[in-house]
Amino acid sequence: MFYRGYPDGPDGREMGAKRQRIVDQGPSFYGNSPGSSFMYNVPPYGYVSQPPPPFPVVRLRGLPFDCTENDVAEFFHGLDIVDVLFVHKAGKFTGEAFCVLGYPLQVDFALQKNRQNMGRRYVEVFRSKRQDYYKAIANEVSESRGSPRRNIPRAKSYDEGKDSAEHTGVLRLRGLPFSAGKDDIMEFFKDFVLSEDSIHITMNSEGRPTGEAFVEFANAEDSKAAMAKDRMTLGSRYIELFPSSLEELDEAVSRGR
Question: pTM for the whole thing?
Answer without folding.
Answer: 0.47
